[in-house]
Write a structure and sequence with these properties.
The protein folds into 2 domains: about 180 residues, Jelly Rolls; about 30 residues, no CATH class. It is built from 2 helices and 15 strands.
Length: about 210
């Protein structure tokens, strides 16, 4: 079975300026597209923007066989030769973004490394998150953060703009393939609705399966 989970409304980005932090819902392009921002500047190691998204999970005891995260790179802007990449991390669920150092730093559950480059094509990007979603399947939410691989040191600045929740066309989403409990292997144990499987008898249900 498969399903698609679109991001929750609690996305956004946090900007840091020295020891001050600010939460932003989104920024707007000149043509009205909503996006969230990842940014860093070579001339200031204390200024940075990080982007956050979360998804309802709550998959219970189902087995996740595959999961892919999709997001939209709306635009990117690298000035004065800046080539710093953007990385992706699974983090602890942040609930509602807050303007704090703890939220900005967060706890990294998995580091996917660089997922966008200064010259990446505009459009949909994806990352296999199967193992992490399986590990987090019973959690109410899973959360992700995009941030620069490092603060630019060569020159200039760099921006990565990602489609925000507020833009219906470019919302991030998860595709999940899973199996439910009843699809697991019998391992010679018959379910209650079957009288005999591999010669193991039950007291209720049909008489025979495949002439056994």
């Amino acid at each position: 079975m498969s399903l698609t989970r679109y991001e929750a409304s609690d996305d956004g980005y946090i900007s840091r300026d020295g020891s001050s932090y600010t939460v932003h819902d989104y920024s707007l392009t000149w043509d009205g597209r909503y996006r969230i921002l990842v940014r860093g500047m070579a001339w200031s190691s204390t200024e940075e923007h990080r982007a956050y998204k979360r998804f309802i999970m709550d998959m219970g005891s189902n087995t996740i066989t595959a999961a892919t995260l999709y997001w939209y790179l709306d635009s990117r802007d690298a000035d004065d030769g800046c080539t710093t990449a953007c990385k992706l991390e699974q983090i602890d669920d942040y609930g509602t973004l807050s303007a704090t150092s703890a939220e900005f730093t967060g706890t990294v559950k998995h580091d996917y490394g660089n997922v966008m480059l200064y010259n990446s094509a505009i459009g949909w990007k994806s990352q296999d998150v199967s193992a992490e979603i399986e590990a987090s399947k019973a959690d109410a939410y899973v959360a992700f953060r995009w941030r620069l691989a490092s603060i630019p040191t060569n020159s200039g600045d760099i921006d990565y703009y990602i489609g925000a929740y507020e833009d219906a066309t470019y919302k991030a989403y998860l595709t999940i393939t899973y199996t439910t409990g009843w699809q697991h292997k019998f391992n010679n144990i018959a379910p209650a609705s079957v009288e005999k499987i591999n010669n193991i008898a039950r007291t209720t249900g049909i008489d025979k399966v495949n002439n056994i």
